[in-house]
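Sanity check

After download, print the first record. It should look like this:
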Amino acid sequence: MCGFVGVINFDKGLNSNFPIKQATNLLIDRGPDSEGFFSNEFCSMGFRRLSIIDLSKNADQPMTTSDGRYVCVFNGEIYNFKEIFSQIKDKFNWKSKSDTEVLLNSFLYWGDQFINQLDGMFAFLILDTKLKKIFAGRDRVGEKPFYYYFDRKRNNFFFSSKIKPLMIMANENFSYNDYNIGYFLNFGHFKNDASIFNKILKIPPGNILKLEDKTVLLKEYFSIHGEFKNKHDFSFQNFDVLLKESIQKRLISDKPVGIFLSGGIDSSLISFIASKVLKNDIKTFTVGFEEKKYNESIIARKLANDIGSEHHEIIINEKVLMKNIPDFFSKIDEPIFDPSTIPLLILSRFAKKSIDVCLSGDGADELFGGYQYYSIMRNFSLFIKLPKQIKRFIISSLSRFKNHKLILLSEYLKTDNFLKSYLFLRTVKKDSEDVYDLNNSFDSDFLSPIDELRETDLNDIMKRDIKNILAENYLRKTDYATMSNSLESRAPFLSKDIIQFSQNLHSKNKVSFIEKKIFLRKYAKNLLPKYIINKKKQGFEIPIKEWIRGGLNKWCYERIFDKESYKDLPINQNLVQKIFNIHNSGKRDFHPYLWTIICLLEYNRNFKSGL
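Expected C-alpha cells:
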C-alpha cells in the first residue's frame, strides 16, 4: 500500500521546477517505509512505499522495466499475482517477488486487456516513455483513490493518491465546485468521478484512463450494471469455496496481519475462517463505546474468545473523540460525512501498534442486502399498489403524530414512485430545509448513468449503492482512516468472484419484507454461534446524535455561529443555526444532515489553511 504523485507534459516538456520532493512528503502516512523518484524531460513523479509484499529494495517504486521504456507507480494489492506470475514467468527476467512487477509485466504481455486479469484493489499509472503515452486505472469498486487534473492551457497532467500533493505540484488556487458541494450536502459523499474542487477529478471505479495526443480518455472496463457470467451455482458450498479463497489470498503478507472485528456477521465470518486458515494464530481488533446501546465490543470479545484469537480492544467516549477531531480534520483531503470515520481512525492507530495489514467486512451489505432500507423498499413496492384512498388515509394518519420518525415515514410514503422513494431514503437531508443557496436537482446525476429502476428486483438499488455509496463513502472512509496510520486494509467480500456471485444472486435471496442478508445469514448459520446470527444489525455507529447535544455541543456551536466557517461556501448560515437549535431542543433529530454540514464547515476552516 502506497501513495504517488506526479506531472507529465508530452507536448512541451516540463518547463519549470516542480516541488516533487515536497509533494511526495505529504504522502508519508501512506508510505512510511521508503521513497522513490523518477524524472526525465517530460515527467516527474514521486512515490512513498508501505512495504507489505517483498520487503526488499527490488520492489521499490517507481518501478521501471529493464530497458527503461516503461515506468510504473502502483497503490494497492493484486491478490492473484501468484497465479498471474505462473502464466507469464517464462516471458520475463524478474528482479523481485512483488505484485508491482507482476502488474507491470502483465501489462507488457497482455496490453490494455491485462486489467481484466487482476483481482485486487488498485490505482496505478504506467508511463510509456518511448511512445509518450500513459495507461492508468482504478479497481472495480473504488477501494483505492486516483485524483488528476489536466491543465490544458499548459498541457500539464497532474496525478496523485491525494489532493494536497496534487495542489502543491500544480501551484494553483483551486476553487470549490458549488454543484459538488450541494451534491455532498444531499447525499453525504461526492460523485465517483468528481471532487469538492473545480478541475480536480477522479478516475471512476472500474475505469481506465489514457493520455494521448493532448487528450484524456476514460473508458469503463467493468460495470456493476453489466452482464455477469452466470455459473448457475448458488450453493453454500460454492460460496464457501469463494470466500475461503478470497480470505486466504488476503492473508498473504510479509508483515503482520489482523482483523477488524465488530461483532456483526461480516467481520465475524472473516475472523472465523481466518482463524482456521492461520490455525488460531490470529489477532482481532475492536473499538467500543461507553454508551451501551452503541457498544458491540462485548459480543466481539466473546467471539474472539471462541475462535481463540489474540484480541485487542479500545473503548472511547466523547473526550477521546474530541482529542481526535483536530487530527481528523487536519489530514482529510475532502469532507467525509460518515461519523464512524473517527473511531475507525482511532482503531487503526491502535491496531498499527501490532499489525500492518487488516481485513474488514466492507462491501457485504451492498452485495448481499444488509441495510434496513432495502426491506423498506421491498415493502414500498407493495404500498404503491394499494388503492389511492387507503394510501391517503395511512399517510394522513402518520402525519398527525409529532414523532420525527413517523413524520419522515409519512413524507417517504408521499413519494409516488420507486425511484423517488429510493432517493428520499438515500439523502441525508430528508425533509430538512435546504441550506444550500443554489437551486440544482441532483436526482438524475445521483443515478446516472443507469437504467430505470425496476420494482421487482432490489439488485438494481444495490448496484447503485456499490457504485456510489460504497465507493465514495465507506471505502473512502476506510482508505483514509487506515492509510493515515500506515495500515493496509483488505476487503475479502470485494473479490472479483464474490462480486460476480452476488450480482447473479436474485434479490429475493438477499432481502425479504422483514429479513435482510438472507443468503449470507443462512450460510453463516453453519459456522457462527447463535449470538452472532440472531443479533440485530447495528452497523458501525457512534452516538453522534447525543454527542452533538452533549460533549460536542460547544465545538459544533463555535463552527456554526462563526462567519469564517462559511467563507467561499454557498450555505445559508441562518438556516444552519435554525437546524442546530431545533436539534438541541430535542424536538427533531437532524444529526445526519447537521453532521454533514458541520463536517463541511470544519473542512473549510482547516484544509486551505493547511496548504
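If your output differs, re-run the checksum step. Summary of this record's structure: The longest strand covers residues 70-78.
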